[in-house]
Design goal:
two-stranded antiparallel ribbon; 80% helix; 12 helices; 4 strands; mainly alpha
């Protein structure tokens, strides 16, 4: 029955995220918000709502390692698998502004979480956890990122591919949009509850830790919206959409998801160790290095193959450990 609840919960989460994003985008357009702002805020938020739903419910149910594992695992999956597969399908051209500003923010968010998780190795006393002040600090970083996004839009920076994706959708009736937002939130809450219950049950029955379940099954499941969107975009040759999805999702996952969740309820790292945090940070740095290599600002197919191979190696290491 746990597997059934896991699948039902995942379907509700994915559907709820889609409904919430569509409804919120339509409402934003009705209010005259530009497509650029919608793409950089609403679309990015929509791809992280599964992680946010799972994170809050996991923390409230006392399964904090599942919440942190979901974010860490999702960020690793996003770079190694999504960017890797997209590059295998079609080489990814990285814009200069993305390399100089946005990807470094992904690295910064990873380093921030690594620093918090490595407190005991840095001589900080007490259990390894994200306490409320640190959660508030992460959320403040999220607000700074949002402020920067709005300022970039006002100065007329190039339109983000995700904004183009959002603008391609027709504006719906305002009441239908509100209904979708409500329906999406409801699906996220109920789906998140059932997903966490199913994942926790499977972990108990198989003797696996909640942290490991979060790093693997839950992380891959909650990243399905980004994966599906990115593969479709790559087939159409629009690899910029994949880059935007990964960058926005990774920043939102750490600064917003963990920031909000830890502010509500402190999050002990549990089974999330130094190895996992180093892999997440290393993946972010490798993402930046591959984009800058030889000055061509392109992630080629062989580099995509390396990323996918590294993820397979990471999963094998998790299973063996």
């Amino acid at each position: 029955m746990d597997v059934v609840w896991l699948i039902i919960g995942l379907l509700l989460i994915l559907g709820g995220a889609n409904w919430l994003t569509d409804g919120a985008s339509a409402i934003a357009k009705k209010w005259g918000v530009s497509d650029l702002i919608i793409g950089l805020t609403v679309v990015a938020f929509g791809t992280s709502t599964p992680e946010l739903s799972i994170g809050i419910i996991s923390a409230l149910k006392g399964s904090a390692p599942l919440a942190i594992g979901n974010v860490v695992g999702s960020n690793i999956f996003n770079i190694f698998v999504i960017i890797g597969i997209v590059a295998l399908i079609h080489p990814i051209k990285i814009e200069k502004s993305v390399l100089n500003t946005q990807i470094p923010l992904v690295v910064l968010s990873s380093v921030a979480l690594l620093a918090i998780g490595c407190g005991r190795w840095l001589g900080v006393s007490g259990p390894s956890e994200i306490i409320r002040p640190e959660g508030i600090l992460l959320f403040l970083f999220f607000l700074i990122f949002m402020r920067y996004t709005f300022s970039q839009a006002k100065t007329g920076s190039p339109e983000d591919p995700s904004a183009q994706q959002a603008s391609s959708k027709p504006v719906m009736n305002i009441w239908k949009a509100i209904g979708l937002v409500i329906l999406g939130l409801g699906a996220l809450v109920f789906g998140g509850d059932r997903f966490v219950a199913g994942a926790s049950g499977i972990a108990s029955s198989l003797g696996m830790s909640e942290a490991l379940i979060g790093l693997t099954i839950v992380a891959a499941g909650s990243s399905l919206p980004e994966l599906a969107t990115s593969i479709l975009a790559a087939i159409k040759g629009k690899t910029g959409i994949a880059v935007g999805n990964v960058i926005g999702s990774n920043i939102f996952n750490i600064f917003m998801v963990l920031g909000i969740t830890a502010t509500i309820y402190p999050l002990p790292f549990g089974g999330i160790g130094l190895f996992d945090l180093l892999i997440m940070t290393g993946a972010s740095i490798l993402f930046w290095i591959f984009g800058r290599q030889f000055g061509d600002k392109v992630i080629n197919r062989w580099e995509g193959g390396v990323l996918v191979t590294l993820y397979i190696g990471y999963i094998v290491a998790q299973i063996l450990s």
